[in-house]
Structures are given as structure tokens and as C-alpha cells.
Design goal:
Elements (H helix, E strand, L loop, with lengths): L1 E7 L17 H16 L5 E5 L11 H11 L3 E8 L11 E5 L5 H18 L3 E6 L3 H4 L4 E9 L3 H7 L2 H19 L14 E11 L6 H8 L3 H7 L13 E12 L6 H7 L4 H8 L11 E3 L2
Parallel strand pairs: 1-2, 1-3, 3-6, 4-5
Antiparallel strand pairs: 4-6, 7-8, 8-9
Helix pairs in contact: 1-6, 3-6
The protein binds zinc ion.
The site of zinc ion has 5 residues, from loops.
Length: 298
């Protein structure tokens, strides 16, 4: 069992911690990565997670409260997620660095090295290396502790990346890979093959033309192509559809039954589609799904 503490640095309102033009607060990046790490780790066996910042971001939980919680819980590892800054306004320093305490404890150096390497490999950003610093979260923690600086908010290019979902996802995946390299945590067996639970059904149905219908509307409604509609209905003139006329439609859909600990993101990835598409196919208003729910994925 790996008892892991995650710490999104600062809070929403912490003064100064933002992109110089005000377009992003550092906590929003930190928290998004932490949430994604938690989401990915749901698919791993034998990992327990404690988040020590305020998940709403409203309170900037003091560093001593964060480390005290981790110590009391008996954590094995502490990962603090941050975005870097240098100088006033936008400046040139860029890249990723990971910190350990000044005494460079070997367990922390090992985890920091693995996470740092994965972050650099996953994002392609400059490798600033594993550094040491007398930061409270590294000094006051009784366990392996690292602090990742995932890019500079004060660098224009990296500020843009830090705001994007894809970069945040890459950082989260890299942190999980670094943990996997270090602690040999393993994916749950069920999580690795969601495809087995996907069923595809193809059904032919008749659509009665309503006033104003076009093949284009029908192609959107039934998620088929206009070409296919024309081929299946050779006798129908698509330019002069008659109200009440019957149109043959063959729709192919894939359904997936949600398993315990599934996430929309994981399901989308396994079916080579996007979260937005699945949400629209199923009329989902939020990312919340529950085991046993049948989702149309295609
Ligand atoms: Zn920070």
C-alpha cells in the first residue's frame, strides 16, 4: 500500500501567485494537476490518497497544517505541485525543476529524479534538474517529499501551456509514471481492458419525414453520413423530401457499461474519443458517472 499525499500549492486568492497578465492563478493549475493525478490513480491498486490543500481553493492552508496532516496520517510520500515564476512581468526563464530538501534524502532524490524525468519526457520542456531547497513542505515532512515546478507562469509560452488542459494532463500522467517507476504501483486489472465491456449494435430503422427535414438534419440526428443515407435510399430525392415519406437509416452505436472507478476521461481515451463527445452523445451535464451506467461512446 502506497499512502500518498498530494498538495496543490497555495490557494486561489494567494497574492502574487498568478500569470503576470492575470489570466491564470497558480492554484488553478496546481489543483487541476492534483485532481488529474487522483483521477488516474483511481485505476491503480493499493494506493491511498490524502489531499492536504483546500480542494475549493478558498483557503490557503498553511504549510505547517499541510505537513502536520501528512505526518499524522503516516504518509509514504508527499508530492507538492506548483508552477514557477521569475522576475517582474513576463521573463525568459523556462523549463521544469523538481525540489528535494537540502539534506537530499535518498528516497526523495529517487522519486524526484523519476518524476522530473517523466515530466520532461512527457512535456518536452527544458530540464532544469533535481534541485534542493529549504522549503517547509520538504523540511517539515517525515516522509519522502518532493515539490514539482511544472513550468514558468512568467514565461509567455509556458503560461499558455500551463493554462491548457492537455499540458495539465501531461503533467499529471508524468507524475503518476514517476510514482510508478519508484513504487512499482500497478494498474487494476479491470481498468486496463475496458474494451471488453463495449458492445456495438447496428440497427436499421425507418424515419418518417417531418416538415422541414433534410438529409443533413437526419445525418446529425442519427449520427450517420449523408452519403450513407443516399445509398440506403436510392429512390428518394434528397432535394425534394416528402412529408410522411419513410427513410431507411442504419445507425451504428457503441455502448460501454461504466465500471467501478472508471472516469469519463479514461473511457474516452479507451474508445479513442473525447469527453466532450461522450457528454454530448449522452446528454451529460457534468463529468459525474456511476458504475452500471450505460454510456453511448460512438
Ligand atoms: Zn507555487
Amino acid at each position: 500500500m502506497l499512502k500518498l499525499v498530494l498538495d496543490a500549492g497555495h490557494g486561489v486568492h494567494t497574492p502574487g501567485k498568478r500569470v503576470p497578465d492575470g489570466s491564470m492563478r497558480e492554484w488553478h493549475f496546481n489543483s487541476s494537476v492534483v485532481k488529474r493525478v487522483i483521477d488516474i490513480l483511481k485505476n491503480y491498486e493499493d494506493v491511498q490518497i490524502l489531499r492536504v490543500d483546500d480542494p475549493s481553493g478558498n483557503r490557503d492552508v498553511s504549510l505547517i497544517e499541510r505537513t502536520h496532516k501528512a505526518n499524522k496520517w503516516g504518509a509514504d510520500a508527499y508530492v507538492s505541485v506548483h508552477a514557477n515564476a521569475y522576475g517582474k512581468g513576463f521573463t525568459s526563464p523556462n523549463g521544469i525543476e523538481t525540489f528535494v530538501y537540502t539534506s537530499r534524502p535518498s528516497g526523495s532524490v529517487k522519486l524526484a529524479t523519476n518524476v522530473q524525468n517523466r515530466l520532461v519526457r512527457e512535456t518536452g520542456r527544458k530540464n532544469r534538474g533535481v534541485k534542493s531547497a529549504n522549503f517547509a513542505v520538504l523540511r517539515e515532512t517525515d516522509m519522502t517529499a518532493i515539490l514539482c515546478e511544472c513550468g514558468f507562469m512568467t514565461n509567455k509560452e509556458e503560461a499558455r501551456l500551463l493554462k491548457s488542459d492537455s499540458y495539465r494532463q501531461k503533467c499529471a500522467e508524468a507524475i503518476v509514471k514517476g510514482l510508478e517507476d519508484t513504487y512499482k504501483i500497478k494498474k487494476k486489472k479491470s481498468a486496463s481492458k475496458p474494451k471488453a465491456k463495449t458492445s456495438t449494435s447496428s440497427n436499421t430503422l425507418k424515419h418518417k419525414i417531418r416538415k422541414g427535414d433534410t438529409f443533413w438534419d437526419l445525418s446529425k440526428e442519427y449520427k450517420v453520413s449523408v452519403d450513407q443515407l443516399e445509398k440506403l435510399n436510392p429512390k428518394v430525392n434528397p432535394k425534394a423530401l416528402q412529408v410522411g415519406e419513410l427513410i431507411t437509416i442504419k445507425s451504428t452505436s457503441s455502448y460501454y457499461t461504466v465500471q467501478k472507478d472508471d472516469t469519463l476521461w479514461g473511457i474516452a481515451k479507451a474508445h479513442k474519443t473525447s469527453v466532450a463527445k461522450i457528454k454530448s452523445l449522452n446528454g451529460l451535464k457534468s463529468d459525474l458517472i456511476h458504475p452500471g451506467q450505460r454510456l453511448r461512446v460512438k
